[in-house]
Amino acid sequence: MQKKNIISDRLTGLVLKRALDAASSQTGVKLQALVNDKQVADVEPIVIASLLVDREKNHLKIQLRGVSQEINAWARWTLFRLLTKHRNLLHESNSLEVLHTEIKDDKLTLTLEMPNQLVKVFNREFFRISLGQHLVLPVTLHLDNLTVEGRLVDFSAGGCRVALSPQLALYLIQPVNAPLRSTITFPNGQTLTTSFEMTYLQPQENFTHALVGCHFIHESLDDEKLFVHRTFEIEREVARLSNVQRTVKHQSPLFIAKDKKAYKNIGLEKNLSPIAALLMPQGYAIKIQTWADQLALQALMLAMNQKLKPNKLKPLAIELIEALEKDENAFRLALHQANTASINPVILHTLRVISHCFPLVFKIGIRRGMELAVMMSLLLHDLGKLSVSRQPCFNPLKLMPEKLRLMKQHQIQLLRAASALRWIPPSIGESLMVNANERLDGSGYPRGLQQDKLDALSRLVAVCKVLDCLVHGYNDPAMRWRDAYKWVHRHKHWFDMPMLKHFIRLYGLRPLCSRVVYSGGFVASVTQVGKQGEILEVVLLKSNKHPAASIGRRVNTPEEFAKLGKIKGTLGPV
């Protein structure tokens, strides 16, 4: 039997939203007055006449009806707890502060904080077994036409918890049309499959993986009995593995592995291509994956309507600042070679925009000392897109109304999160997080601001974002850098030309990872540029005269450059 208030009994995020929406149409939903966060008042719960969920303001508006004496008594309380049913079980919210009170005739209207969780009051869960580090069981979550691989953390006949990589967990924050299904695969090849409802999605305590709570929906009593039986078999195997001193030798046939190698690594990691591995600066592959995962876990907090983790976000921002200040060439070069199969495109786009925008910020008038505020704002600016798409370069104004509303809601949450951090000045937060997708002629989003309302920061980040979109071909075929520059110049009614010039002056006509074609028959990738955008080093990719011997050789002296010949043209990034 589980104890009350452990994590698996809580409804958060998407499930919490659905439960609150359902509560607004239920009868019998009640409010319990509280003396403080932990002490219930000695009064009966009050039946709610009507409940409205205001997601724009992040409030609950509740109406109570009664005689004048009751209304006046209720109005004196400043803390309440919401009592409602979900899956026919009673749930209670965290303590909710009264933000506004209005009395009119026989009605009392209370504006309350939005709950951040609902917790079961009664527990009728099955026996639950934790797998710990002793047993690894892979779990496949089926989402529409997509499958996501994870690892079983604990299991019962009624539900389980699954650990996912942060990047894969991002698939779960977008709306899913088909019923969710899970498949647990045992070492002998047998599987256990059932439909489930996601109860929560959030980072693990150590902030390395995401945890998904699954509530099983059994189709029959026989299915439920099978899951009970599997629970006891898993428990026996965990006991056998964790008590090496014991002489228990009887192993369930489920755990006699056909292929032991298949259970050592669970995930979708893929090796870098040979050229990417050649160009990736030493030690950066793991760094970039770690940075991307940290940002993905913050995005989960946002999507689940929870506060960001500043104690994790601030060290990430500081690490990125230090990496750029130490060697910004290596930073950008690594991002161009990053494993796109293992990093969400929105997050990879965000990191590349940071790599170009952050150094430029201090060349357009932003004073030193604002590094942390700028980096933090750039890290957060695109996270709202993850709730509606994996595509980083699109116009939300073309989305369906529901998706547009969801994205605006997350934008509001981002601004609140930035305000709560306190070290981000409102002007910087607004410029980089809200106005990053505005255009000079007012055709951008979210507010359609025109050029007289857009400061230098907003104009700069807009140019950096569109160049990254064009060069990496998210919507159309990828462009060469020079063609991307020309495209932006042709759209000067959208983008600020002085900011484009700043970009070209610092990064050159052939930025890092551009492929350069030389008259001597060589094709090389740019791996170092100077402070004026001049090419300082290239790595040879192929040669018409020396097909094998030239690959991987670094050229960085005037004499070696002379042997390559003159630049005949350029190709897109590697």
Walk me through the structure:
This is HD-GYP domain-containing protein. Residues 324-519 form the HD-GYP domain. InterPro entries: Cyclic_di-GMP/3'3'-cGAMP_PDE, HD/PDEase_dom, HD_GYP_dom, PilZ_domain. Pfam families: HD_5, PilZ. The chain has 574 residues and is α+β, with helices and mostly antiparallel strands. The chain folds into four domains: 7-120, Roll (Pnp Oxidase, Chain A); 129-243, Thrombin, subunit H (Beta Barrel); 274-507, Hypothetical protein af1432, CATH 1.10.3210; 514-573, no CATH class. It contains 15 helices and 22 strands. The chain has helices at residues 13-23, 68-74, 166-169, 221-242, 274-279, 284-303, 310-337, 345-361, 371-380, 401-421, 426-434, 456-472, 481-490, 497-507, 558-564; strands spanning 10-11, 30-33, 46-47, 50-54, 59-65, 79-86, 89-93, 96-104, 107-113, 118-120, 129-130, 138-143, 146-155, 159-164, 181-185, 191-203, 210-217, 514-518, 522-529, 535-543, 554-555, 567-573. Strands 1, 2, 3, 4, 5, 6, 7, 8, 9 and 10 form a ten-stranded antiparallel sheet that branches. A hairpin with a 2-residue loop joins strand 12 and strand 13. The protein starts with 9 loop residues before the first strand and ends with a strand. Mean pLDDT is 86; it is low at 1-7 and 262-269.
